[in-house]
Amino acid sequence: MKKLVKYLLLLFILTGCPQQYVLEQLKKEPNIKVLLLENKKSVNVSTLSGLYINVAGEEVALPPNKVVKINLNKGILTLTIGDSLKINGVSFPFSFRGREGYVKINSRRYRGIVKIIERNNLLSIINILPIEIYLYGVVPKEIGYLKSNRIEAIKAQAVAARTYAIKRLIERSSKIFNIYGDVRDQVYGGMDAEYELGKRAVDETKGEIMLYKEDIVEAKYSSSCGGITADALDAWAKDFPYLRGKPDTKGHRKGGEIFCKFSPHNKWEKRIPIDVFISKIESIYPGKTLKAWKVKWNKKTKRVKEVILITNKGTFTMKGYKFRMLFGLKSTFFTIKQAGSEVVIKGRGYGHGTGMCQYGAMGMADKGYSYRKILKHYYSHIWIGNLYR
Predict the structure, then answer these.
(1) Which of 92, 111, 256, 380 could pair with 118 in a Cys bridge, judged by C-beta atoms 3.0 to 4.6 Å apart?
(2) What is the count of structural domains for the chain?
């Protein structure tokens, strides 16, 4: 813990945040600011028992069982309660909280405070709430609604998601929001995503995060690794010593039974008409005609590092993860060949493959592994510390 305090103090000093703030964050659970929606012209806010609106520090109670319609049109902000009652004198930013402890945004419920801001002449909606409550709405959206026999996998997900969130919170401490509520960071479903087993996993690991030496881990995770996890350098063009590819087997032994073998994405195939394949490639390199291609694999992880494209105007290299996005492939763990009038791509796994394999975590839980052993299987040489309790 002393190492962690020292690291965080240094980090916050370098980013201009006061030391006292860091110490306070270590003593208690911090709030996190989650970007729920952006670039909206209108949004509806409601609760059955009523809302409080806070404008410039002044809080006013609004009538119960009424929808507040917020519109921003050509710079003009309009708030309407129900069908006709308009709220005047409201300026950005303003926020809502519900008498029942939640606020409904359009059709979804969110705990904590909902803040409305203007960005680029459009509405953005930010949910501000304690990080552990935030995790209630993240864990099931990321690993699914599992049963009690897989509680250790759910706990592993809780620690990974908390670690990821804490790292974003620190990095973006001075920003208007800390984390995206979608696949750009972690999928967050709010109050309606919560379920008891997920909440239990969060509660039983409260405050726990992963660290490598004195650094908070970049806690990447994905659905299914296909039997071998990926090097971070191949997936993200940035290296992390604890995110190195390895067999997803007991003791990382080659040839062993893989933990994620039951994943529906363990093996997959995609066939693309050759003319469509060529057309997509050439759309990235206008004015060039594709003549042939070669693939360069990471020999250890079997993932595609680069696709070498040979054209009438020279040779070009496309990163494996960019090739994956271009053709909507499940992963970069694939082989590719031409078969007649088609390009046949056969692959394994789903996602970037770096860090924790979620199906593998389930497989390990099935075999009796604890959440700590699951995490240390996927993140090399890490330790688990507790920020707050």
Answers:
(1) 92
(2) 2
